[in-house]
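Colleagues,

Please find the record for the two-part complex below.
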Amino acid sequence: MSNVIVRKTLISLAIAGAATLAQADVVIGVAGPHTGAYAAFGEQLWKGAEQAAADINANGGINGEMIELVKADDACEPKQAVSVANRLVDSDGALAVVGHFCSSSSIPASRIYEEAGVLMVTPASTSPTLTDQGLSNVYRVCGRDDQQGDVAASYIVDTLGAKRVAIIHDKDTYGKGLADATKATLNAYGVKEVMYEGLTRGEKDFNALITKIRSVDADVVYFGGLHSEAGPLVRQLREQGSKAIFMSGDGIVSDEFVSVAGSPEYVDGVLMTFGADPTSYPAGKTVVQGFRDKGFEPEGYVLYSYTAMQVVAAALSANDLDPVKGAEWLQTNSVDTAMGKKTFDDKGDLTVSDYVMYEWDAKGKYTQVN
Amino acid sequence: MDIVLQQLVNGLTLGSVYGLIAIGYTMVYGIIGMINFAHGDVYMVSAYITAIAIALLTFFGIESFPIIIIGTLFLTVAVTGAYGWVIERIAYRPLRNSSRLSVLISAIGMSLILQNYVQLSQGANQQGVPTLLTGAIRFTVGDGFVQITYMKLLILFISLLGMGVLTYVIQKTKLGRMCRATQQDRKMASILGIDTDKVISTVFVIGAMMAALAGVLITLDYGAFDFYVGFIIGIKAFTAAVLGGIGSLPGAMLGGLILGLSEALFAGLISSDYKDVFSFSLLVLILIVRPSGLLGKPEVEKV
């Protein structure tokens, strides 16, 4: 008997606690791979969002309400993404979500957010499918893979003048999507790829595939996928004596790419498409300085995550904390962010994409190619 | 021509590593009739121990490659062997006389425990070790060349040596005789004065040590690993063990080589997208023709 009473009290306490929590603060989810092989990216998303929330709270929060962040770990697994999305919506009472990272997670999660009327701004998911679904609540502050593929393909054709291109992908939504986008543009330029194959995510031995790349005598190897496969791939490519130029997309933009490849010498000369250097925006300088003062270099998606949080805050702030109206508002209004003025089209994509080419050097750092 | 030869080299090295790990599956199955699903994760643990051992040795100022590799091999094999012993002790021995299913579930639980333990204690990130041995031998063949890196040579040499030593131990020594006796009839062996619990422990330790050899070699070669790396390679090695005939030691080595070669040749000459489909189709085919694997003995119903 007493047990039941205790349990009931506990439950009502928990409900009361949740309710006060939701009243006092604006709960915003930060969803991404906080554990697993891609945890480095989850870390980038969290750091950016955390800093943005701290800065916004220091300036009075959103209409006087403080932002409270909730970490949601999807491990880049679509199934887990669905369950954490449900958790954010149901028990955490999130009004908006910054995330997810992997496109294959963002797409199923986005539908749950739409049903619940939650605003979703992803800093990193670049698959065209995400915004082509026609959902009203989905925005992204990064580009699309078809735009990224355009930049990669025109660089291969115009700047490198390469004729023999091998395209490899990791059979995932993001990796294959990016590889297909690049392939489509290459073919439009009249360059037919000499090889188009998939590898298995999680494997480390790609020697057979690389011998095949060698046999087709490729000048350029284009890889659609993430750094955990790109690292061993580029290393084994060099070990087998191939001098082909290795190019990939924004899935490898992490310091871990260097450690997974084994040593900086292997990543020397690797090309990568990614958004223009965020520090080049005047508005971003103070933010970047803020990170550096804390002894942290805002690499990869950190500033994107920061920007996504600013977009969320602006939309909620202008619409009295209503995420559905906020999503509508973003259609017609632009937001001043650390990465410049962001304007969105009907689908929720940026009107201007800013993909440029970067090159990794023998010190294991990347710089923009001019 | 050079491409086919190169794929053979790729397949041989990959296959010899599969073979090393398959030994652990096959020996355990042979002796207590269970599939040790935690074996892939024992391999994963050995990858972490390798990185720790290299870090330790370089910390103490040792820089010569032979000493590092010998020291790492020694440390990793010893520590991973201890893991094998502990796992058998806490997860399998208490279930020695229960049904096979309970032991199987215990093995799956052990596998999850190892993964989560490593994830929590070492972090979920990708880990890397620096390249220690570079360089390769090249043979000119026709217009092209076939190359084998020194690291791959080392992999072939050490795995063959490991398999050779193990075969000798099982065939020629007293310990091997005890293992074979326990495998044939555990009850009879124990009546004749063999401490079968001890023999079973030893088999787990040997299996873990072989996985550790593979762990050191692969970690040094590919450089990258995470807490989940044991899963795929564990499945492949298990396939190799079944292919060669589970319970048979030469079968595991043969199965590993066939699997490695078929993967490399199919991926290299036809399509890398479907190489796993091909390997598993091959497994199905072989099992249709020979249900107990290539070198496996058909199970005799004891009346």
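The beta strands of chain B are 127-128, 136-141, 144-149, 224-225.

Comments are welcome before we finalize the supplementary table.
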